[in-house]
Amino acid sequence: MLNQKPIKVLSPPIIVQPQSLALCAIYIILPWSKCLWYLISKAMWSNLPFDPLANIFSYLSPDSLARAKSACKSWYACANTSALPTRNHGHFIYAHNPADDSWHLLPLDFIPNPVRPIASIGGLILLREATTTSLQLAICNPFTRQFRQLPKLNVTRTNPAVGIIELNSANFEVYVAGGMSEASSIGGGSSYEPSLEVYNSVHDHWKTIRSMPMEFAVRLTVWTPNESVYCNGVLYWITSARAYTVMGFDIVNKNWRESSVPMADRLEFAALVQRNGKLSLVGGTSEAGEACIWELTENNNWRMNERVPEELGARLLGGKGRWGSINTRCVCIAGAMCLYRDLGSGMVVWRECAKKGEWEWHWIEGCGTIKGMKLQNFPIKGLLLHPYLASSSFLNE
């Protein structure tokens, strides 16, 4: 059991309240082949003994290993040996500790296959396996180093929308909507899948709960990223193409809805977040790098309630001038919101100050080095986690 004191292990750049043990982890997929240059000098490559070379090769992804094999005869022989360790060291968590303004790296070498992060579920991370085009989901706890695959879906799908609902600390649901179904065995081609499946962590199986309009299935497959927001009984996604629109599924009534987006044809990036129990939208316009935050009212109208400070927006843009020129992303948790673009460019944070009862803007420097090792800049996936430091019975099943 956790005590009530804050735990200073990989603390977040965003601390909502010390008692909540909230942390922010920046999770990216980073091939070790892009880090090796900093670990071993170029002059040593041709003189490495067999065992260290085999150990290094064990960290490479299959495509990187194939390129390494073509470098020379000795590398080819080493890469083809049965003594080559089998592991997956291509995934990491980069976490910022605000106590000393330092970044830390957590290897995810306990995950057997290449994966891509989708979303956080409390202190867990929902993943999709990257070795297959059809959706296969998994869960991991990066702190206890536990990993588990979820059961296969009832319908094999490619590129569906994925949504998360946290029912309580021990129960969650995963929704999968749309996607492309497999080609028919009797000669038919693949087609859009107009159905919705839900996985419940207590019952540990998938259930098809509702068919859906074909137009929603198409848009959820083609134009919708995996980022979802659950708010007041509705699971929302936003389309990734301008003009932006919001699609929602009412969990209780089991019907679909569509909402417009403020300044939909002028936004160069847009993301949905939940703030103070209400659905909010963060978007950047083409006008001098302005970014705003809107809130959906009870009358289903959008009301602007905040602007990103001009100096912080300009800092995140890095002189690019327009939001459309960078890959702006947004992630949110109760009491904090974070805008980011990549590993090294820093983050704009809007968080609730517990003492003042107000929200304040902050800047967090990006990750350029870890323990003296200089890092290249990479695209990242930002996740906000509540750390689970105890072993999870769900992941042990």
Unreliable parts = 1-43
CATH class: Mainly Beta
**Largest sheet entry:** 4 strands, antiparallel
Helical proportion?
A: 10-25%
Total domain count: 1
Stated plainly, the CATH topology is called: Neuraminidase
Total DSSP E strands: 28
Strand fraction equals 35-45%
Mean pLDDT: 79
CATH superfamily: Kelch-type beta propeller
Structural class: mainly beta
Q: Strand order within the widest sheet?
A: 3-2-1-28
Radius of gyration: 22 Å
What is the 3D form? globular
User: How many helices does DSSP assign?
Assistant: 7
Assign the CATH architecture. 6 Propeller
Terminal residue distance: 20 Å
Domain F-box associated beta-propeller type: 117-304
GO molecular function: ubiquitin-protein transferase activity
Domain F-box: 45-84
